[in-house]
Amino acid sequence: MEWNKIKESARTFVSFLPDTIKRTSIWIIISYLIPVINIGIIWAIRGGFDWDLSTLSVLLVTNACFITSLVFLIDKKRELTSVLNTISLVVAIVLFAFSIAQIEKDMSIFPIYIYKLGAFATLFTSLFVGLVSKYDEVEAKGLLRAEKGRAKKNTTVDNKTIEL
After folding, report:
1. Model-level pTM?
2. What 3-state class would DSSP assign to 157?
3. Higher pLDDT pick, 24 / 163
C-alpha cells in the first residue's frame, strides 16, 4: 500500500471517528444489555460481584453471538480483521462449550482464569471488529456524500447562483 493511501485512510478514519463511535456504542449497548442484566441478576442473587463460570459463560455466549453477526458485516477485503473475527468466534464457542460441560459435570476442565481471559479477549476483539465494521458503513456514507458534492456544478447563495 502506498503511503499516500495510508495517510488518506488514517485521515478518513479520524474524521469519521465520532460518528463511528456513536454508531458502535448504540449497537454494543443494544447487543449487551440483556446479558449485562442477566449477570447483574446472578450477582444480586449471590450477594456479591465475582466472575465465576456462570457469569463468564453468559459473556462468552454473548460474545459468540455478537461476533457471528460481525462475520457478515466485515468487508471481505479486510483479511486481517476477518481472520481475527473468526479466531475470536472459535475461541468464544469452544470456551463456552467447555464452560457448560464444566458446570453440568461439576468438574474442572480449565482453570477459571482461562475462561476469564477468553471472555474478555473476545469481548475486546468483538468491540474492535464492531468498530471497524461500523467505520466501513460510516466511511461509505461519507464517500457517497463526497461524490455527490463533487458532481455538483453550482450552488445558490443569497438567491445567486454560483458556478463551482
Report:
1. 0.70
2. strand
3. 24
* Closest to 24 (Cα-Cα) out of 34, 15, 16, 12: 16
Give, for 162, the enclosing helix (H) or strand (E).
Answer: strand 160-163
Taking residue 153's Cβ as centre, other Cβ atoms within 10 Å add up to 7
What does the alpha-carbon distance between residue 106 and residue 127 come to, in Å, rounded to a whole number?
32
Specify the DSSP element, H or E, that contains 54.
helix 53-71
Q: pLDDT, tens digit, for every residue of 58-101?
A: 999 999 988 888 877 776 677 777 888 889 999 999 999 999 99
Identify whether the C-beta of residue 35 lies closer than 8 Å to the C-beta of residue 58.
yes
**CA–CA distance, 130 with 74 (Å, rounded to integer):** 9
